[in-house]
Amino acid sequence: MSDEKISSNEAIDAALHLDGDPERVKEFYEDWARNYNIDTSGSDYTGPAIAAKLLHQHLAVKDSELLDAGCGTGLVGVELQSLGYINVDGFDLSDSMVELAAATGAYRQVLGSIDMMRASESYPAASYDAILSVGVFTLGHVPPEALHVLLELTRAGGLLVISTRTHYYDQTNFQQVVDELTTSQQAELIQLIKDAPYNNDGDGHYWVFRKSG
Fold first, then answer.
1. pLDDT category, 4, cuts 50, 70, 90?
2. Which residues lie closer than 8 Å to 129 by C-beta, 6 or more apart?
3. Is 29 helix (H, G, I), strand (E, B) or coil?
C-alpha cells in the first residue's frame, strides 16, 4: 500500500495503512480502543448512523436477530438501540473494543477475538435476520471475500448492510465479488448509495443485499 496520507487524523490514517494481517490488526485496535470514540467523533464519522437507518428502511421488525460484524466500540449497536432493535449481537477482533461495546448496553451478546474470515467457526450458518458491517471493509482490514462469510451467517431472505470507504472500493475487487454474488443469484443488491457522507476525510458507499432463498 502507498505511504500516501489518507486521513488527517494520525490514528485513523495508521489504521488505513494496516496490512490486513489479523494479529497486527488486533494489536493495533487493542492499543487504540481507549481513544477510538474520541478520534472518530472528531472526524464526523457518520457511517454507523447511516447504516442503521438503511437497515431500518428495509427491516421494521424490532425483535429481528441482528449481528454487528466488526462491532468495535459499539457505535452501530447504539444506533440500532435508538431505533428500537432489541436482539443485537456483535463481534470484533479486539477484546478491548468489545469490552467497550458491551458497556453500551446495546448488545445481547458480544464476542472478542473473532476474525471475520473465520466467523463461521463461532456462529451457526443462517442464524441472523440481518448483518451489518460498518468501518470494516476498509483498507488494511478485511478482503472483499468476507462478504461470503457474512452471507453464510444470514438467513434466507435476510439482509446484509455494508459500508465501504471509496478508496477501498477503488483499490480492491469488491465490485467483482458483488457481481459474483448477484450473477450466481446468491444475493440481490436491493439498494446502493454511492459517494455518501462517511467522515470528514472522504465519502463511502453503502450497500444493502438480500440473501436469496
1. low
2. 59, 61, 64, 65, 66, 154, 155, 158, 159
3. helix
Rg of the chain over Cα atoms, rounded to whole angstroms, equals 16
Considering only CA atoms, which of 83, 82, 129, 81 is closest in space to residue 107?
Answer: 81
* Strand-by-strand arrangement of the 65-69 sheet: 109-111, 87-91, 65-69, 128-137, 154-165, 202-211, 187-199
Domain ranges in the chain? 10-211
Q: Is 13 helix (H, G, I), strand (E, B) or coil?
A: helix
Q: Please list the helix, strand and coil fractions of the chain in percent, rounded to the nearest 5, in that order.
A: 40, 25, 35
**Residue that the C-alpha cell 444506533 belongs to:** 79
Amino acid 206 reads Y
> Does residue 5 surpass a pLDDT of 90?
no
> What was the pLDDT predicted at 6?
43
Instruction: Read off the pLDDT of residues 61-90 as tens digits, 9 standing for 90 and up.
Output: 999 999 999 999 999 999 999 999 999 999
Eight-state DSSP code of residue 108: S
User: Which three cell numbers, joined as nine digits, stand for 124?
Assistant: 451457526
Helix (H, G, I), strand (E, B) or coil at 120: helix
The CATH superfamily assigned to 10-211 is: Vaccinia Virus protein VP39 (3.40.50.150)
Indicate yes or no: pTM above 0.85: yes
